[in-house]
Amino acid sequence: METLLNDFSPGLFVMQIVILIILLFLMKKFAWKPILNSLEERETGIEEALAAAENARKEMQNLQADNERLIKEARAEREEIMKEARSISDVLIATAKEDAKEVTSGLIEKAQLVINQEKQAALAEIKKSVAELSIGIAETVIKKELSNKKEQLALVEELLNDVTLN
Amino acid sequence: MKVAQKTIKFLTIAVIAIITSTTFASEAGEKGQPQSDGGQVNTQAEVKAYIKHHLKDSHDFTLFSYSTDAGERKHFGFPLPVILWSSEGLVAFMSSEFHHNDDGHVLVEKKGLKFAKIHSKIYEIEKGAVAVSFDKSEHATNAQKPLDLSITKSVVGILFAGFLMLFGFSRLARQYKSREVPRGFGRVLEPLVIYVRDEIARPNIGEKKYKKFMGFLLTVFFFIWILNLLGLTPLGFNVTGQIAVTVCLALFTMVIYMTNGSKDFWAHTLWMPGVPYILRPVLAVIELAGFVLIKPFSLLVRLFANITAGHFVVMSLIALMVTMKEAFGPVASTGMSLVLALFIMVIEILVAFLQAFIFTMLSSLFIGMAVEEHEHH
Amino acid sequence: MYNLIGAGLIVIGGGIGLGQIGGKAMEGIARQPEAAGKIQTAMIIIGALLEGLAFGALILGK
């Protein structure tokens, strides 16, 4: 301890205090303040830039989500339109088919009616001619006054043959 | 700007050259005089004296010295101004007037006062005395020390470190005006500043209050570090190994944390809550002694002792090549001392940083203790 | 002479303390390697406090 106190130089101590105070003042003014300030500025700048980048990323995500939503909506709309078109076409086809059926069935009915009428008419004519024929046959048969049965039968046969030929 | 810098460089070199060239030849000591200031060292006692001399502050800047064949001592270096606050006021002269004498035999007369240099200290001899008289333990009996405000080697070292810091960091500061990221040597300095801020100040003082102390902490950190490293160069500075310097640094830390103490700090120091009333004054004395005496004392002693011990060990290991020459032969002793000194030197480089770090770290820890505001529960 | 004995005692005490600090810090780092940085800083601080104590005693005894 004694040697330590002996080594202590008061002059150096005073010089060191003076120099250190001056050094502290000068360093604070010319070095530490600008350095620390610009470091801080830079750090806040970096932080802000990072935050901005984060924001931009989020915005991008939002935009992408929007886009996707839009695409989905468009797709859904298209689907709906397609569905509607399909149903309209189905309805159209169905009505067309029905119409056609109606028309054809009407035609058929008409045809059947005509056929029936023709048939009736033909039948009536046939009946008439059969009656006329039978009357004619009967007339001739009666007219000839048949002598024998054999001849009578042959005559009927002949007449019937004539009828079929007619 | 560049031209100006070049001229300044040229001028400094020219000034140094002129000073040294005028002093080299004239620096010749007497033959046979015991030399403790860089004379030949052969024995263990001489080595010890040499190391002791080195560890002290010096009034001239001697880079090396040698003996001519005629036995003359030649010193290579330059003298430094001696400024004394004596009983007759301010006295100033160059240290070359002592002719490298370190045991009080050469007297310098100024303003009717006689001065002598004994073991790196300048004494003012009492009026009427012709020579210094010593007692048995070689203390001067008829002389006392004036306030020695000389530009000693340590002061040169302090100024050198200060200029180095101012130059380097103001350049770094100027760089920020034109660009975001510094270039060149600034790239090395910037992470160091950030290191001190983020690893030392912020966690110990606290996010809110650290800014106020950054100037002091950064200055002290780089000041100590640069001077520690300068001490390892062959220039032979031993600034942080001067007790006066470390006392000053510790005193600054003490003043800073005492003046910035928060209300809570004073309450906890002087009137500790939650302790019986009888114990409180006792605790206050202990706490106060801790903050005023013990903490600064441990700070200053740690730095001083580490650097002194480092210098001592390195110089002793280098001296092995002299002291072990007879036992092992010149080659083996030189090789051994080289290897050992190199090894310790590497450790000392680490210690140079570590001591600067620890001084700053503990300073910020103490400041943190003082400014901390407790949350009351 | 007594100075030297005292210095030896101080060195013994300091050595034991430093050994404890270093050993425990190593154990801590081995247990939690991710906390190595914090443990190292704490170790250095405590080592420094011990060193201050030991150096203080050495210098007071000198």
- State the total count of DSSP E strands of chain A: 0
Main sheet characteristics of chain A: none
Low-confidence stretches of chain A: none
Estimated helix fraction of chain C: over 70%
Q: pLDDT average of chain A, as an integer?
A: 87
Q: Assembly state here?
A: heterotrimer
Judged by helices, strands and strand pairing, the structural class of chain C is mainly alpha
Strand fraction of chain A equals under 5%
InterPro entries (chain C): ATP_synth_csu_bac/chlpt, ATP_synth_F0_csu, ATP_synth_F0_csu_DDCD_BS, ATP_synth_F0_csu_sf, ATPase_proteolipid_c-like_dom, F/V-ATP_Csub_sf
Family (chain C): Belongs to the ATPase C chain family.
GO cellular component, one term (chain C): proton-transporting ATP synthase complex
Membrane topology (chain C): Multi-pass membrane protein
Question: TL;DR of this structure?
Answer:
Chain C: This is ATP synthase F(0) sector subunit c. Chain C: InterPro entries: ATP_synth_csu_bac/chlpt, ATP_synth_F0_csu, ATP_synth_F0_csu_DDCD_BS, ATP_synth_F0_csu_sf, ATPase_proteolipid_c-like_dom, F/V-ATP_Csub_sf. With 166 residues, chain A is mainly alpha-helical.
List keywords for this structure.
heterotrimer, A: 166 residues, C: mainly alpha, 2 helices
Which helices and strands, and how do they pair?
The complex is a heterotrimer of chains A (166), B (377) and C (62).
Chain A: H1 2-7, H2 10-144, H3 149-165
Chain B: H1 2-24, E1 28-29, H2 44-55, E2 60-67, E3 73-79, E4 81-86, E5 89-94, E6 103-110, E7 113-118, E8 121-125, E9 143-144, E10 147-148, H3 153-178, H4 186-205, H5 214-232, H6 243-259, H7 263-270, H8 279-323, H9 325-328, H10 330-371
Antiparallel strand pairs in B: 1-3, 2-3, 4-5, 4-10, 6-7, 7-8, 8-9
Helix pairs in contact in B: 2-8, 3-5, 4-5, 4-10, 5-10, 6-8, 6-10, 8-10
Chain C: H1 2-31, H2 36-61
Helix pairs in contact in C: 1-2
